[in-house]
Amino acid sequence: MPKKISDNTVTLFVNGRKYENWLEVSITCTLQSLARTFSVRSTRSKEDLTIGIQPQDEVKVFIGDDLVLTGYVTKREVSYSASGISITISGASKTVDLQDCCMPHGMANSYKNQTHEQNLKAVCAPFGIGVVDQVKSVDRRNLEFAPTETVGAAVTRYLQKNGILLTDDEAGNLVIAQAGSGGNAHDTLELGKNILEGKRTQDASKRFSDYVTLGQAANPTSELPVSANHLKGFAQDEGVRRNRWFVKQESGNASTEILQKKAIVLKDVKFGDSDTLTYKVQGWRQSNGELWKVNAWANVDDKWLETDRQLKWVIASITYTLNGSGSIVSLELKQQQSFMIFKEVDTKKITIEMYPEIKKDSGRV
């Protein structure tokens, strides 16, 4: 049974009270971002400048009956002019503390031989942040970072290295995600039906004809000649019509197979990043009453932008806005290739058989 269409009233719950009737609203959720954000604006009279919301207050943001953000008020701004007095409240998901902060001084900055979920729960615990694992990988990895490094920087590097994405959810949890794990959008984005504005950006400067990944087969104690330790991987984008080379040096031990896969993934990601759709749609909800959501698959039927109706795009970013033009949702869509992140082999599973170019007992791998 379709969900009953509720209204688009934006409500902030702060300190046991609810606040509504905002003149302007902006709520942004982005895949591969640690924290969704919001900003709301209201006007006040000279006789009543109080609003009861202060920076650092805990907040929950709803659109109708749908929770869309759980976090903190990060900024309160009061301004005035001849036309009146304005108050703007801004905030972010609970995960913003991962983005901004280092681990508490004296706590461990190295977590070894644990699953992704275990590692991330360990670093999120001091901030009271939960972890939702949509991938359920059983691989065991190490998470290490410098004492002066922000948790967000370390976590982002860790997830990219291990072939998974991250985002947050409406409850303020950190989410280990995969592209499209938000499900399928109910509605098709369709020219002449629900699209107000559209733009397609195809940026060929992000693509290259040839990709080369360089790496080392073994550590310096190997008895192999230096030249034998130097390995390469290649990939070609046949859609690029002139010679454009991209060369990347990979760290750590490698094999020709691994470097080859990395070159292919690099080519695919560059291709995906070169093609972006941006749309504005009237209203925040689809025809079945559900909100448009980030990291969902969406079909696009737009002859002006020459899209393939059968191709599913990933909603990479979404912004709900309310202003004098009404309630509008802005969507940024990318192809699946943008989120193809290479998954490194568990080092404990690497054996000599994976390196045919290395002789057995020639040195440590």
UniProtKB/TrEMBL annotation:
Residues 271-339 form the Baseplate hub protein gp44/GpP-like C-terminal domain. InterPro entries: Baseplate-like_2-layer_sand, Baseplate_GpP, Gp44/GpP-like_2nd, Gp44/GpP-like_C, GpP-like_N. Residues 10-91 form the Baseplate hub protein gp44-like N-terminal domain. The lineage of its organism: Bacteria, Pseudomonadati, Pseudomonadota, Betaproteobacteria, Burkholderiales. Residues 95-177 form the Baseplate hub protein gp44/GpP-like second domain. Gene3D superfamilies: Baseplate protein-like domain - beta roll fold (2.30.300.10), Baseplate protein-like domains (3.55.50.10), Baseplate protein-like domains - 2 layer sandwich fold (3.30.1920.10). Transmembrane segments: none annotated. It comes from the Bacteria. This is Baseplate protein.
